[in-house]
Amino acid sequence: MLVQKLRVRRGWSQEQLAELTGLSVRTIQRIERGQAASAESLKALASVFEIDFATLREPQMPATAESQISANHVGANDVSAEEALALAHVRKIKGFYMHIAQYALVMGVLTVVNLLIYPHRLWVIWPALGWGIGLALHGLQTFDKIPFLNGAWEKRQVEKRLGREL
């Protein structure tokens, strides 16, 4: 629950937090529901939130020497949260461009196969249309053109529900 509060307070979506920490979205969802998290997951979260690892640690977890390491100290090679978000966004853009390249390659091959085998019936239009819609939605999500269901929307909804700022 603390992880969700910290995430929402910063206006991050679960996907953004997952990219910043290197964890999967599913892991973030499980932790936010209160399921136990590994020490590595908690360390990654503590580092991103710039808080002490012990703050996120479950009370029933045994304290080890390794778990006493504070995540407050950011080394010279570490990146700030803003830099990490920028890097995550660039990775999303790169993923979108890879999606475009895959679409072009596969549709090109399917078009050639269609024209060689069934030149009088253009069935390639249907997979191109279906995948193209998915590609367009991916682009809208990547470039934050969908104004709802993102981290900022989630933060506004929580603040509206609470009647105060986080």
Helices and strands, with pairings:
Elements: H1 2-10, H2 14-21, H3 25-32, H4 39-49, H5 53-56, H6 81-117, H7 125-142, H8 151-162
Structure at a glance:
With 166 residues, this protein is mainly alpha-helical. The chain has helices at residues 2-10, 14-21, 25-32, 39-49, 53-56, 81-117, 125-142, 151-162.
Jot down its keywords.
single chain; 166 residues; 8 helices; elongated; mainly alpha
Separate helix tally:
8
Main beta sheet: none
- Give the overall silhouette: elongated
- Mean pLDDT across the residues is 82
Describe the structure.
The protein is mainly α and 166 residues long. It has helices at 2-10, 14-21, 25-32, 39-49, 53-56, 81-117, 125-142, 151-162. It starts with a helix and ends with a helix.
